[in-house]
Amino acid sequence: MRETLVLNASFEPLSTVTLRRAVVLVLQEKAVVEHAHPRLRVRAATVDLPLPRVIRLSRYVRVPFRRQAPWSRRGVLVRDRHRCAYCGRRATTVDHVVPRSHGGGDTWLNTVASCAEDNHRKADRTPEQAGMRLLRTPYEPSPSDALVLALGGMGRESLPDWLAVPA
Q1: In 3D, which of 32, 34, 30 has the Cα closest to residue 163?
Q2: CB-based contact 21:55 (threshold 8 Å)
Q3: Sheet holding 13-17, edge to edge
Q4: Phi then psi for 37, rounded to 5 degrees?
Q5: Is 0.85 surpassed by the pTM of this model?
Q6: Could you please report the per-residue DSSP string of 100-123?
Q7: Which of 55, 101, 133, 135 is most buried, by CB atoms within 10 Å?
Q8: Where does the pLDDT of residue 93 fall: very low under 50, low under 70, confident under 90, or very high at 90 and above?
């Protein structure tokens, strides 16, 4: 499980890493802790370190420009916060707004999180044909937003205000 966000020296989100990797980067002085868990610490004979949630690299790392976040089913569920786009209940599947059989693809703008009942009810039709209304319009997250949203499992309230992604 990747629990720690890694920021570049310029505070740009780069990736997520395991807690163990984050601690190693801090101990090797390749990164500094920017945001830590309020009550938990990592302790050893000669080490006393706050449990990192966000670390920042000490040196700037040049990364190739990524224009868009890669699409994935998990990414769609995380983007929609596991809420059905048709009824608002817990979502477990991904629904294509324009079905694949009608030429719709696996894209951020054509997929929404859906509960199994609504996905089955909509079937191989568009929402208009099925008489269903989308509660929110699908959008394409930026690569940085996708990284921060992926950390949503640890709770958005636990992230610092300067890192929050608009709802």
Answers
A1: 34
A2: no
A3: 13-17, 4-7, 48-57, 31-43
A4: -65, 135
A5: no
A6: GGGT--S-TTTEEEE-HHHHHHHT
A7: 55
A8: very high
